[in-house]
Amino acid sequence: MLRRFWSFVHLLGRAATYALGLLVLAGLLLGPVSFGLAAVGDALKLGKANNNAETKITGIVADLAGPVLRLTNQGVGPALDLKVEAGNPPLKVNSAEPVVNLNADLLDGQEAAAFQAAPGCSNGTVFVAGVCIETAKRNQANWQTAQNTCFSFNQGARLPTVGELQGLRGDGRFDFTGTEWSSALVEDGATNADLIIRVNGTTADQSFLVQSSSENFRCAQTPG
């Protein structure tokens, strides 16, 4: 009788041990799952639209020596596409450090030329392509009269080159429409030996015209 009692106690102890082991194993396996299910919001599903109506910020916090998040697109599209409502900035940072290889075409809607220093450029001129060019075009005149007007306007002033006029057109802030005289004189050896290259401020095209014709013009000079 006593032997049967101790055998029953031993069997009961083994059963309790097995039950406790199963409970511990279940806790290890189901614990993370329960944590994931208890998290606020749905999991991030790659390759699918994730519409999140939550008001909380989704964040990643880590203590790493390298990047916390890296996006690699092996196709032809960009790796990141940020979209916001009109009037809102697409990106916000908390550092003033420069970013390597981050390029910007415009700053406050202005080209780089708008922020160049203008050493010695007088009022009514702008520093473009290394020279000071008048911001307003002058009335039409033939090429020689235009040249003489620039010479008499200021010492060292002249008609701008083709490249300087094209640089002014690229700035985009000034009245440069239609065609204007450049300083480029071409001799073709024909009846009209002296032809002048003129630049179209609307299309940037170049064309030739006899110097006796009339065109708008503006003066340019080296900063002094």
Describe the protein.
The chain has a domain at 112-221: Mannose-Binding Protein A, subunit A (Mannose-Binding Protein A, Chain A), CATH 3.10.100. The longest helix has 37 residues, at 2-38. Residues 28-39 have low confidence and may be disordered. The protein has helices at 2-38, 143-153, 162-171, and strands at 125-128, 131-134, 138-142, 179-187, 194-200, 206-210, 214-217, 220-221. 26% of the residues lie in helices and 18% in strands. The strands form 3 sheets. Strands 1-2-8 form a 3-stranded antiparallel sheet, covered by helices on one side. The radius of gyration is 38 Å and the shape is elongated. It is of the alpha+beta class.
Show the helix and strand layout.
Layout: H1 2-38, E1 125-128, E2 131-134, E3 138-142, H2 143-153, H3 162-171, E4 179-187, E5 194-200, E6 206-210, E7 214-217, E8 220-221
Antiparallel strand pairs: 1-2, 2-8, 3-7, 4-5, 5-6
Short note summarizing the structure:
The protein has 224 residues and is α+β, with helices and mostly antiparallel strands.
